[in-house]
Write a structure and sequence with these properties.
1 helix, disordered N terminus, 12 strands
Length: 212
């Protein structure tokens, strides 16, 4: 009987310890959750891509004095930029009097057209002139023409220093296009021969993103 009592106490002790272990396991398996936020930041930098998609070379062919040539081919540009404030399109040819057309004698030039970027004019007279006849923010001063040969186009001579011919304001998610027409005539005193654009006196187009 004493042995049975001892055996019973031992079993009770074992079961008690086992129960205690289970309770301890249950307590230790409880998982608490917490959250923390991650703050992100970045600064997107300026991007700009500019290309001439057509008309990077304008051959006027044979030019008879007092007979203007106005090619159907225009100089077409494409601008893509992420600038929040848009961009400017500028033009220059290195001279305020001479066009970018020099004789093979290296001293004789065809003149710039008399109209200016500030005040383009309907075609009259002689020289080399251009007209921004199409653009995202085309100014009314360039006339109401819609094609390169439109008689409603107004022309200016390219200046020596880069001068704005169009300003695009605000952000644009896609590509902007602009088209420039050309027209040329010379007086009957213009020296005969071949003329072309020499290095340093070519017509140059410049696009600049407006950062502020």
């Amino acid at each position: 009987m004493r042995k049975n009592l001892i055996r019973g106490l031992a079993i009770a002790l074992i079961l008690g310890l086992a129960g205690l272990g289970l309770n301890m396991l249950s307590i230790s398996s409880e998982v608490k959750a917490d959250t923390q936020d991650v703050t992100l930041s970045t600064a997107v930098q300026s991007y700009l891509s500019f290309s001439i998609t057509a008309g990077d070379s304008i051959p006027f062919g044979n030019l008879t004095p007092d007979t203007p040539i106005n090619p159907a081919t225009s100089t077409d540009t494409s601008v893509t930029t992420n600038s929040a404030n848009g961009y400017t399109l500028k033009i220059h040819d290195g001279s305020d009097t001479n066009a970018a057309l020099r004789h093979t004698d290296t001293t004789t030039w065809i003149a710039d057209y008399a109209g200016t970027i500030t005040t383009p004019t309907s075609w009259t007279g002689t020289g080399l002139g251009f007209c921004l006849f199409e653009g995202t923010n085309k100014d009314a001063k360039w006339g109401t023409g819609t094609t390169a040969q439109d008689s409603n186009n107004k022309y200016a001579g390219a200046p020596a220093a880069a001068t704005t011919i169009m300003t695009k304001t605000g952000y644009s998610s896609g590509a902007d296009t602009a088209k420039i027409a050309w027209k040329i005539d010379v007086p009957n005193t213009q020296k005969t021969g071949s003329y072309s654009s020499p290095e340093g006196n070519k017509v140059t187009l410049t696009v600049t993103a407006v950062l502020e």
